[in-house]
């Protein structure tokens, strides 16, 4: 009986022994992922360069294994808050430098990604207060701003009494170049007597020079916005309209259109002193051109359209690549 029991125990020992390492392996927690080492720079207060030694004590005579340049990026391998720190230089040399010669490089801060407007069938339409939609006062003029996937389009619409002029700024915060063709921009009168208001070639406008190309009589507001409250004495100047809006503009969008406004305002001030030839050149210089916008770049300029009598409700459509940016605008009569 004792022999049979011993045989059973021997059998169990042989069959379970291979399971022990496997069970041990399953119960061992995975090693923590190696954390990314911080990047530091060599700091040189009062010295031209910094010696790297083979020993942490930096005993004399110094066992110098490398000379590090000021501003050189290094990686800290071990730091016990002592006199020296173990580092690796940009060429892979490992050694010790005095802690006073190290400066931590802060991680570059990333600007928060702006919200993106909703897109339906390739169309993004400006709606006050919606994600990606902003409006703000720039140089006394109300500007609408619409952002889709990092691409921001900002517009203001002006009634010169002769033509309608859209000031447009486009900023490419995306990763791919953008091609724009101003002659493809569309302005429609969407009122009761709706009709398309066709694009005007700035080269043709320059041939029939008039101060009304840039002079502003009225500025459009966001379509559907409350009527502005203005005093009877509110003066209308070359590029500004005196009014107090009854809605509060938002201010989260960067102002990409301001530089063009300054250039246009300067052109208006100089119109009385210039020859017609110089004014024609100025019109062409201010016009938005057909171009390609690289990532992190921007353009701005003026785009002219024909004017209908007493324009009120309008829709400005700006196609960029496979998307269209729509801006409902209105003139308060």
Describe the structure.
The protein has 333 residues and is α+β, with helices and mostly antiparallel strands. It folds into two domains: 39-104, Roll (SH3 type barrels), CATH 2.30.30.40; 123-330, no CATH class. The protein contains five helices and 22 strands. It has helices at 2-16, 19-27, 202-207, 258-270, 276-286; strands at 39-42, 49-53, 64-69, 73-78, 84-88, 94-98, 102-104, 123-125, 133-138, 141-148, 151-159, 163-172, 178-180, 186-189, 195-197, 199-200, 218-219, 221-222, 291-293, 297-306, 313-320, 323-330. The strands form five sheets. Strands 9, 10, 11, 12, 16, 17 and 20 form a seven-stranded antiparallel sheet that branches. A hairpin with a 2-residue loop joins β21 (313-320) and β22 (323-330). The longest helix has 15 residues, at 2-16. It starts with a helix and ends with a strand.
